Structure prediction request, 193 residues.
Amino acid sequence: MKNVLILNAHHYYPFSEGKLNAALIEKADAFFQAKGYQTRVVNTQDEFDVETELENHQWADIVFLQSPINWMGMTWSFKKYMDEVYTAGMGGALCHGDGRHQDNPKANYGKGGTLTNTQYMMSLTLNAPAESFADAADFFEGKSVDDLVFPMHMNFKFFGMQAMPTFACYDVMKNADIDSDFARFEKHLNENF
Prediction:
């Protein structure tokens, strides 16, 4: 049996209440439980206890991050969560500092992670259409969603975690196709777990 920590990184805005992210979390939670996995769901905009969150990360075999993309990155409430929980984890719960040692301070940066048996998956919701990523002449200059969230991949890698394929729902505010997104989401989960 595997343990899955599901992080809801949505941050409420009047124009974005988080219903799609909540529905995706509900579907993911049901999917994992149907497979016999144990789950814990944390809403990062709610109050949280740093020590409990460190324990949640150590408990997890898989960290499943559900997040909207906000100003080309993670939400403020998730950034706060990272600043508090992930900084506290640098003493060994998530990593041993930055991985370097005094005897060779130029080597091993980012290689002190203690979660080397943990995988992670990001599931993202974006206002941008998928087409804006595919065209080198368009806004994202041909870069992928994973390029956009590269800093988040590096944060997880810093803890020694292994990436699983990212899922994304595009154009969710102006041209949503929720039924198609849900079908793709179910397929994505089935292909990866």
Summary: The mean pLDDT is 95.
